[in-house]
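Re: [help] complex structure
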Amino acid sequence: MSETLLDLSGIRTGYGRIEALHGLDVTIDKGETVALVGANGAGKSTLLRVISGLQPLSGGSVTFDGDNLARCKAADRVHRGIVQVPEGRQVFAGLSVEDNLTLGAFSRRRDKTVPDDLDAMYQRFPILKEKRRLHAGNLSGGQQQMLAMARALMAKPKLLLLDEPSMGLAPLIIDEIFGIITELKQEGITIFVVEQNASEALAIADRGYVLETGDIVATGSGEMLLNDDSVKAAYLGG
Amino acid sequence: MFSEFFQFSFSGITLGAIYALVALGFTLIYNASHVINFAQGEFLMIGGMGTVVLMDAGAPIYLAIPGAIVMAGIAGVLLHKLAIAPAKNADVVTLIIITIGASIFLRGLAQIFWGKDYHALPAFSDTESLSVGGAVLLTQSLWILGIATLLVVALGLFFTRTALGKALLATSMNKDAASMVGIKTGAILTLAFGIAALLGAVAGVIVAPITFTAYDIGIMLGLKGFIAAAIGGLGSSTGAILGGLLLGLAEAYTAGYISSDYKDAVPFVLILVILFFLPNGLLGSRAVERV
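Output below.
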């Protein structure tokens, strides 16, 4: 029996008077890779913001590693190991690549091993080492995505949240990014990936959820969802 | 002829250094929160008047000055914690209006508790002036330039060498992403207000021996600092320094060559002219962005 890392139960939240999530339940076990797929505006990013503590709840609870996170602020959640790679990269454009990476480790900045981790990160992403003195804003979209992922990894995540890692990238780069995600998965990091690019995401996921206008409408193994006719029709282009 | 020019340049650069410090305070808070903090001038008042009050209470000047600066720093932190932070998701214009309210409040408190009189602080050095190229150079000007330079260098090191400084920059660039790497963005904003207040207070103390200090000096000095920041291009630290010096010199030359009656009009004419031709200021943001 595997251990639950993240348990979302009855999550409700909204923007003003419009409710975006209508009481949904999601669980993620330790070491699992889980995909959340759904159309634009279904509430995928909102759910990730809830988990990161950036979007207040109007109902339900977030339990991580056995603790209720109701009173845990965004910055403290990073400290606990919930780290998000936000939609659209959101690197610190005016800071150097290296500064972006060291800021990634801000939650453990007194940890003596940070420089070693930086070296390890440069080995994993040689392109970032090459460009480490450049402003992050000068990198290409794919490089920025790698930087955003590397920045998140610098925090030593227990749960890595990936919001649309393939958005706006060329197909070759998308393959590279999903290759990296697969590597991370093999290293045992628990991953929750949110994607419009449903086929790629479900292909690497152990399990998947399908989100439609604020409700979970289907769930199952990645393979099962990939072959589900209604999911196919709605998200995989027939 | 030249001695006159030197004379005006000395006083222009001296004033300019003060404006630059005020402008840096505006820039810091603007970058961190997009708020234009119109209470910035009051920190100068607290710096100057606080020193006067502490000296009246018997403190020697070398204790009164740090005391007043700390007082202003606390005022800056409280301004954020009590007035700005509780307004959470209010839009920027609302926050700016809050800072105007806060400045009136601080000025009122000073008027009630510290009085309405004008005070002069003694110059920091016993020798009050030197003669350079036929012009009179106040030793206080050297103090002002030295201290302002020191602060600018310290600020530069803070932003380029410390994790906290970089965290502040990161927060100003992207608040959500900063939260996602574990930066407590609320605390960072408080820190920005604190530092801006310290900068203002130092400026208020070092200028007091030259210009007098009183409960209401914050209005004009604050506005001029804001103009310096806007001329330089809001958000740019180098621009703030440049804008401050430019403004100081323009004011001194106008006062010297035309009439000192027009001195206080200079900043307002300058901002109109410069923003007409360069809407983003001298070094306004040319943001690097790629989507």
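Chain B has a mean pLDDT of 92.
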